[in-house]
C-alpha cells in the first residue's frame, strides 16, 4: 500500500529521506513562508534552484497577506499566486518520486498532508540537431532528441489540429520510463489502437532505454526476418505517418520514434520522394527495389552459376572466374561466405570505435587487407567485386540492413549447396514469408499485395501531387485496416 503524506512536516521529511536515502543530489531546505514552517525538496541537476527562488520571491513580496492556517497558505499559493504549478499535488510517496524525478520541486507545508509541485524543470539535454541516419536534400533538418517532452513538442509544432492525441504510460519496473503514443483520432483504425495499447500494457520489462525494446512485445506471431514496426529520427516523417492513420511511439531517453504498423514498401520511401519530381522519385524507388534484390541475391546467384551452370557466364568472364578459383585455396562457395564475414567484421569495428579511428579501420580493411588478400591469392577478384557491389546496394536501403545481411548468407548457402533450385526455392520462401506477415491486422506487403488503388498512387511508382492531393490516403482504406483481424 502506498504511504500517504502526513500533516506533520518532520514525518514527511523523514519519509522523503527514506525514499532517496543518502543520494547526494537530493536537496532539501527548511524555510518559513508567512510564518509557517515549510520545506522544499528537489533533485539537483533536474531542477533549477535559480528558478525556484524567483518563484519564492513572488510569495515573499506580498507582506499584506497573512493566512490564518496552513491550509489557507496552501490555497493561497495554489490559487492566488503567479507561481507555475503542476496540475496534480503530491499526496503519497509514489507521487513524490514521480514528480521529483521529472525535474519538479515539491513544497511541503507543516500542517498540510499534501505537497505543492512547482514547475522548476531544468534538465540538460542534447539540442535538436540534424538526424544522423536519415539524410535528405530538401525539407526539415530537425531530428528527435532524448527528452520526451521536447520530441512531443516537435510533432505538435508540425501538426496543429485538434485531432492529434498524445497518451502517456510508464513501462520498466526499475526505470519507470515514460512513453507516449501519438495518433490522429479520426484516421487511426480503432482495432489497431486497441491492440497496441493492450500489448504495451502487457509488456513486462525490467528497464526501457529505447523504443526498440518494445518491438518484441508489439509483434506477435511466427518468426520473420522482417519487422512490422519501423523507426525514424525525423519529426516530419513521424508526422507524415500520423497523417496516414499510423501510431507513433516515443520513449523518454530515445531519439528514435517507433511507427506502427509499418509496411515493406515504406523501407523504400523517403521524404525527398515527395519534394522531387514524380518521375525522378519513381526512378529512385525502382532503383532501391533493384538494389535490395542485388544485395540479397547477387552473391548466391553468382556462386550458383559458377558451380552448377557456368555456361551462363560469357566466355571472357568464365575464364577469369575459373582462373581466380584455381589460384585460391578455398572453393568459391566458402570464399563468398568468408568475404561477407570479413565485411561484417569491418562494419562492426568501424561502427563501435570512435569516429576518427573507425574511418581508419575501414580504410585499412579496404586498401591493405583487401588488396593484400587478392595479391596473395587468398581471395579471388570476382568474389571481392561481387561482395563490394552487394555492400554498396545494402546501404541504399539502410532500414533493411539486418534482414538483407542474413538473407544474403542464406542465399549463398542455398546457391552453393543446391544450385539454381535452392535459389528459386529460397526466393519464393522469402516472398511467401512476406506475403504471410500480418502488420496489426493489415497485410505487411500492402499496398503492393493485395493490390489496390493506393499502390497505383504511391507504391512502386509515385504520381504527381496534383493527383495525390485528390486522394486522402489512410491505412484504414487498406484491406484489414478497419475491421480486419488484429491478432
Please specify the SSE layout and strand pairing.
Elements: H1 9-20, E1 26-33, E2 36-43, H2 49-60, H3 70-79, H4 93-101, E3 105-109, E4 115-118, H5 148-158, E5 164-171, E6 177-184, H6 190-202, H7 215-218, E7 230-232, H8 235-242, E8 247-251, E9 257-260, H9 278-308, H10 315-326, H11 332-352, H12 355-375, H13 381-394, H14 401-418, H15 420-435, E10 438-439, E11 442-443, H16 453-458, H17 465-468
Antiparallel strand pairs: 1-2, 2-3, 3-4, 5-6, 6-8, 7-9, 8-9, 10-11
Helix pairs in contact: 5-8, 9-13, 9-14, 11-12, 11-13, 11-14, 14-15
Please state how the strands of the largest beta sheet are arranged side by side: 5-6-8-9-7
Uncertain segments: 483-487
Name the beta content range: 5-15%
Radius of gyration: 30 Å
Q: Name the average pLDDT.
A: 86
Helix-strand category: alpha+beta
Helix content: 40-55%
What is the number of beta strands? Answer: 11
The major pleated sheet works out as: 5 strands, antiparallel
Order of helices and strands: HEEHHHEEHEEHHEHEEHHHHHHHEEHH
Distance between the termini: 36 Å
Amino acid at each position: 500500500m502506498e504511504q500517504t503524506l502526513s500533516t506533520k512536516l518532520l514525518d514527511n521529511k523523514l519519509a522523503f529521506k527514506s525514499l532517496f536515502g543518502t543520494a547526494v543530489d537530493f536537496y532539501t531546505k527548511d524555510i518559513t513562508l508567512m510564518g509557517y514552517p515549510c520545506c522544499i525538496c528537489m533533485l539537483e541537476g533536474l531542477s533549477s534552484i535559480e528558478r525556484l527562488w524567483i518563484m519564492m520571491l513572488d510569495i515573499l513580496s506580498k507582506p499584506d497577506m497573512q493566512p490564518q492556517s496552513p491550509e489557507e497558505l496552501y490555497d493561497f499559493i495554489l490559487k492566488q499566486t503567479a507561481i507555475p504549478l503542476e496540475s496534480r499535488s503530491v499526496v503519497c510517496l509514489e507521487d513524490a518520486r514521480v514528480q521529483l524525478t521529472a525535474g519538479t520541486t515539491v513544497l511541503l507545508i507543516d500542517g498540510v498532508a499534501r505537497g505543492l509541485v512547482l514547475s522548476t524543470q531544468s534538465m540538460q539535454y542534447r539540442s535538436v540537431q540534424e538526424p544522423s541516419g536519415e539524410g535528405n536534400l530538401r525539407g526539415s533538418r530537425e531530428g528527435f532528441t532524448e527528452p520526451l517532452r521536447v520530441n512531443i513538442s516537435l510533432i505538435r509544432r508540425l501538426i496543429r489540429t485538434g485531432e492529434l492525441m498524445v497518451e502517456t504510460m510508464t513501462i520498466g519496473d526499475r526505470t519507470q520510463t515514460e512513453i507516449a503514443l501519438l495518433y490522429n483520432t479520426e484516421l487511426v483504425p480503432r482495432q489497431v489502437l486497441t491492440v497496441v495499447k493492450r500489448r504495451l500494457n502487457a509488456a513486462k520489462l525490467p528497464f526501457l532505454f529505447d523504443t526498440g525494446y518494445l518491438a518484441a512485445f508489439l509483434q506477435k506471431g511466427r518468426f520473420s526476418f522482417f519487422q512490422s514496426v519501423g523507426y525514424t529520427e525525423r519529426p516530419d516523417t513521424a508526422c507524415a505517418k500520423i497523417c496516414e492513420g499510423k501510431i507513433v511511439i516515443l520513449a523518454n531517453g530515445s531519439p528514435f520514434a517507433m511507427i506502427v504498423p509499418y509496411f515493406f514498401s515504406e523501407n523504400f520511401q523517403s521524404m525527398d520522394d515527395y519534394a522531387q519530381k514524380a518521375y525522378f522519385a519513381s526512378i529512385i524507388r525502382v532503383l532501391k527495389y533493384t538494389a535490395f534484390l542485388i544485395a540479397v541475391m547477387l552473391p548466391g546467384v553468382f556462386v550458383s552459376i559458377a558451380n552448377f551452370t557456368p555456361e551462363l557466364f560469357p566466355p571472357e568472364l568464365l575464364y577469369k572466374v575459373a582462373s581466380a578459383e584455381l589460384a585460391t585455396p578455398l572453393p568459391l562457395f566458402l570464399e563468398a561466405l568468408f568475404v561477407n564475414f570479413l565485411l561484417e567484421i569491418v562494419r562492426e569495428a568501424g561502427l563501435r570505435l570512435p569516429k576518427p579511428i573507425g574511418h581508419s579501420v575501414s580504410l585499412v580493411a579496404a586498401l591493405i587487407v583487401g588488396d593484400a588478400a587478392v595479391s596473395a591469392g587468398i581471395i579471388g577478384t570476382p568474389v571481392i567485386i561481387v561482395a563490394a557491389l552487394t555492400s554498396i546496394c545494402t546501404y541504399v536501403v539502410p532500414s533493411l540492413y539486418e534482414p538483407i545481411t542474413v538473407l544474403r548468407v542464406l542465399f549463398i548457402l542455398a546457391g552453393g549447396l543446391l544450385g539454381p533450385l535452392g535459389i528459386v526455392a529460397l526466393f519464393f520462401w522469402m516472398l511467401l514469408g512476406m506475403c504471410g506477415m500480418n502488420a496489426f491486422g493489415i497485410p505487411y506487403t500492402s499496398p503492393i499485395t493485395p493490390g489496390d488503388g493506393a499502390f497505383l498512387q504511391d507504391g512502386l511508382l509515385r504520381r504527381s501531387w496534383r493527383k495525390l492531393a485528390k486522394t486522402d490516403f489512410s491505412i484504414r482504406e487498406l484491406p484489414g485496416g478497419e475491421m480486419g483481424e488484429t491478432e
